[in-house]
C-alpha cells in the first residue's frame, strides 16, 4: 500500500515540529490573544483606547538570505528577519503591531530545523511587541529541494485613524533622522552571494557569514516611544531599493526631495567592503540600507529631542538630511 510518507510527506515529523513550535509561540502571546495554537484560526481582540482603530497589514519574506542559513546550518536568526520585514513596514504608518503569522515551506521537513526557524520568528515577535498566533508548515516533496526552506510572514497592527502617518504633514525644512541598521538586513542578497562566494573567508577576524547573517533590526519599540511624545511627519523602512526607492515613499502624494548627507553617519565596514569589491557607491544606495535601516521626518524644533530619546534607548541615531521642495526623490550629497 502506498502511503503519504512513501510519497515524501512524514506526518509524524510534522507533529513533532508543531510540538516544538508551540513552546516558542506561547512566549509571545499577549493578553489580547483569545486562543492558542492548534485552532483553525487565531483570534485577537483590539486593545482598548482606540477611538477609530484602523488595521494596518504587511507581508514579506526573508528572500535569498536564507541560502546563507542553509549553507551554514544557522537557522535560528532568519525568522527575526521575517518578522522585521513586516513589522517595520507597518510601523511606517504609525501602527503598533498586534500579531504575526508565518508560512514555512520545504521539500523534506526536519522538525528541529523548522523549530529553529520559528524560534527566530518568536524572538522577532518579542522584539516587535506582537504575538505569534499561527502559521502554516508545508512539506512539498519534489517542489522544493531537500534541505531548503522558504519563510514568509504576515503582520497586522493598529493605529487610530487620526494618527495615521501618511506623509500629508511633511513640509519643506523637516529634518530626516536616520536610525542605524544592524548590517545588511534582508535585502540585496542575490548580489551579496555573488560577491562573497566563500562564506568561510575571514572578515574582521571571523567568517564573513557571521556578519552577513546578522538579523534585521526591529525598530518598533524605540519608534513607538518617540510617537508617544512627538509629531512624526513621515517614516521610511530602508529595504530593497535602498534610500533611492524607499525614502520618497514617506512623502505620499507630496512633491518633495529628500536630501541625504552621506557623510553624516559612519558607513559600516561591510558596505565599504562591497564597494571595494567592485560595486559602484551610488548603486549601493539603490540596493542596500548603507547603515541606516529606518528614517523619520520631524519638525526641526523637535530634532534634538527625538535624537536624544532614541539615543537614550540605546539606538545610534543621526541627523542625516532634510526635506526640500521639488519632486526629485532623493539627492545624495
From TrEMBL:
<dbReference type="GO" id="GO:0005524">
    <property type="term" value="F:ATP binding"/>
</dbReference>
<dbReference type="InterPro" id="IPR036676">
    <property type="entry name" value="PurM-like_C_sf"/>
</dbReference>
<protein>
    <recommendedName>
        <fullName>Phosphoribosylformylglycinamidine cyclo-ligase</fullName>
        <ecNumber>6.3.3.1</ecNumber>
    </recommendedName>
</protein>
<dbReference type="InterPro" id="IPR016188">
    <property type="entry name" value="PurM-like_N"/>
</dbReference>
<keyword id="KW-0436">Ligase</keyword>
<comment type="similarity">
    <text>Belongs to the AIR synthase family.</text>
</comment>
<dbReference type="InterPro" id="IPR004733">
    <property type="entry name" value="PurM_cligase"/>
</dbReference>
<keyword id="KW-0963">Cytoplasm</keyword>
<dbReference type="InterPro" id="IPR010918">
    <property type="entry name" value="PurM-like_C_dom"/>
</dbReference>
<dbReference type="Pfam" id="PF02769">
    <property type="entry name" value="AIRS_C"/>
</dbReference>
<keyword id="KW-0547">Nucleotide-binding</keyword>
<feature type="domain" description="PurM-like N-terminal">
    <location>
        <begin position="54"/>
        <end position="159"/>
    </location>
</feature>
<dbReference type="GO" id="GO:0005829">
    <property type="term" value="C:cytosol"/>
</dbReference>
<dbReference type="GO" id="GO:0006189">
    <property type="term" value="P:'de novo' IMP biosynthetic process"/>
</dbReference>
<dbReference type="InterPro" id="IPR036921">
    <property type="entry name" value="PurM-like_N_sf"/>
</dbReference>
<keyword id="KW-0067">ATP-binding</keyword>
<comment type="pathway">
    <text>Purine metabolism; IMP biosynthesis via de novo pathway; 5-amino-1-(5-phospho-D-ribosyl)imidazole from N(2)-formyl-N(1)-(5-phospho-D-ribosyl)glycinamide: step 2/2.</text>
</comment>
<keyword id="KW-0658">Purine biosynthesis</keyword>
<dbReference type="GO" id="GO:0004641">
    <property type="term" value="F:phosphoribosylformylglycinamidine cyclo-ligase activity"/>
</dbReference>
<dbReference type="GO" id="GO:0004637">
    <property type="term" value="F:phosphoribosylamine-glycine ligase activity"/>
</dbReference>
<feature type="domain" description="PurM-like C-terminal">
    <location>
        <begin position="171"/>
        <end position="329"/>
    </location>
</feature>
<dbReference type="Pfam" id="PF00586">
    <property type="entry name" value="AIRS"/>
</dbReference>
<dbReference type="GO" id="GO:0046084">
    <property type="term" value="P:adenine biosynthetic process"/>
</dbReference>
